[in-house]
Amino acid sequence: MSIEKVDVIVTSPGRNFVTLKITTSDGIVGWGDGTLNGRELAVVAYLRDHVGPTLIGRNEDNIEDTWQYLYRGPYWRRGPVTMASIAAVDMALWDIKAKKAGVPLYQLLGGASRSGLRAYVHASGATYEDLLDVIRGYMAQGITAVRVQTGIPGLGQVYGVASSKPGEKYNYEPALRSADGTAATRPAEETWDSRAYLNYMPGVFKRLREDLGTEIRLLHDGHHRLTPIEAARLARELEPCDLFWLEDPTPAEDQTALRLVRRASTTPLATGEVFNSVFDYQTLITERLIDYVRSSVTHAGGVTGLKRILDFAGIYGIKSGIHGPTDVSPIGMAAGLHIDMAIHNFGIQEYMPHSEETLKVFHTSYTFKNGFLHPGDTPGLGVELDEELAAAYPYTAAYLPVNRLTDGTMYDW
Ligand code: EZ4
Ligand code: CO
């Protein structure tokens, strides 16, 4: 049997997604996610013009060989566009293999190592009281882990704070269309001040521990904004608050920055959502500079790519913390859950539910109950795209914001 057809589908049910559809000569369909937030059409061109034609006639069973063909073959290795494209192909081939075997993908990765996947959800608030309300609401649902982001006095909209109010359905989507819902022409601009953040944030976590007790797991995302010495200070000040992890305290591509943070503090660290290869982790893993790997399946070369990273991490006692934002499609999300189910070094899974609109187009089998996710037992990845409905939502440009310091200097968002 062989690959007969490769289609790239772009749909925007609330936000943009890039989906790869591979059809085999005996009619089996596999789905892959190649969504790269704000740069979607670069992946579309890479898949449609450069990858798709080379796949026709290949044996769909040879996943590792196909991965190496797409990684080593073009000479130009790594990078987010290439690796998201490889991921889309890899996921679709694993979907096909598991469908042919009649089993959920996690069975092919070693079977279930646990009964469910502890998930963390997002909480935020423009004020402390709003934040506390949102977290208490989650705790009442049995949720055991929460990522906490808050507004900073004196700053406007900052990363990670939802537009919804307590009591409303939690709504946070960082990639923005224009205000009237049509295509954005350029990113929104936000203002950042690390000093205001550093003076405010530790106090929020101290109050949360006083108000909520020690049981709830609290996480926080620094979103690449601090210098190494600032990050060291934050990690040290947060130490008494027992964070489950501090994510991306410094710009991630400087792996050695975390040496300084490590020396200063025992606050666990998580990084890697912008990485796309095992080599991005080489120093971080071998020097044990992190505790959790944040890559998604979509941005790290697929099931094959991420499994390689996590097996390497496991040798050093480092666990998974797979990225699960809404810009990873339900297909990419499901692929992560199958890996989580099978590996020994599972840590936690991020869960940021997709919108109802998105879930009308992508039919999922995974479940979320009492704070735990499960990939479901449908053969394959367990996600199917409604192509007809997908076509009703054409691509609509949307961008992540950019950040400037208060004096206008361009900064990291
Ligand atoms: O900003 O997925 O931990 N999660 C994050 C995300 C990222 C977006 C970027 O596309 O940092 O919210
Ligand atoms: Co993050």
Describe what you observe in this structure.
This protein has 413 residues and is an alpha/beta fold. The protein folds into two domains: 3-104, Enolase-like, domain 1; 108-379, TIM Barrel. 35% of the residues lie in helices and 19% in strands. It has 13 helices and 18 strands. The protein has helices at residues 40-55, 63-72, 80-101, 105-108, 128-140, 194-212, 228-238, 257-264, 282-286, 302-315, 330-342, 356-361, 387-390, and strands at 3-11, 17-24, 29-33, 117-125, 145-150, 189-192, 217-221, 245-247, 269-271, 292-293, 319-322, 348-350, 362-364, 367-369, 372-374, 383-385, 402-405, 410-411. The strands form four sheets. Strands 4-5-7-8-9-10-11-12 form an eight-stranded parallel β-barrel. β7 (217-221), α7 and β8 (245-247) form a beta-alpha-beta unit. α6 packs parallel to α7 (228-238) and α7 packs parallel to α8. It starts with a strand and ends with a strand. 47% of the residues are buried. The structure holds (2S,3R,4R)-2,3,4,5-tetrahydroxy-N-oxo-pentanamide and cobalt (II) ion.
